[in-house]
Amino acid sequence: MDSPSRDRSVLGRRSVLRLIAAAPVVAALTTACSSAPDEPDQLLALAEAAKSDAQLAKAVAQAHAKLAEVANEIANARSTHADALQQEIDRVNPRDPEDPPSVPEAAPQQAPGSAGAASQALSDALGAAQDQASKLVPGLPGYRAGLVGSISASCASLLEVLG
């Protein structure tokens, strides 16, 4: 006759041992799949550069009438880039709406004194943004690669408009 305590047990000794043995594997898998990032988002630097470029372009537009139209276009485009990057950063790593944006606003900038120097500053900023974005594209997953590739192409187009 079996003892009453054995009949009431739902899990046998071997089942309990299997569960204990599987616990580290389950813990490792749930840790690997967590959404908490260990390092900063790769798009943060791009978004910060976009905001900074937009501020530079606004300063150039105000200081140099000859460059105002092109500089305003650059400012609008780079602001749009910054917004798109911020949305993607927030999509991957949602933040509390009460928290400030993960990409801080750029400080206002002063335009270089001459129109030639201002045009060169915008050209250098756009070239750097294009290079930075194009270097990131191969290591990014699908949608992010498309977004960053589009930003790189946009910067190249803006460089052509700037002349």
From TrEMBL:
Residues 92-131 are annotated as: Disordered. PROSITE patterns: PROKAR_LIPOPROTEIN, TAT. Residues 106-131 have a biased composition (Low complexity). Keywords: Coiled coil. Residues 60-87 form a coiled coil. InterPro entries: TAT_signal. This is Uncharacterized protein. It comes from Saccharopolyspora oryzae.
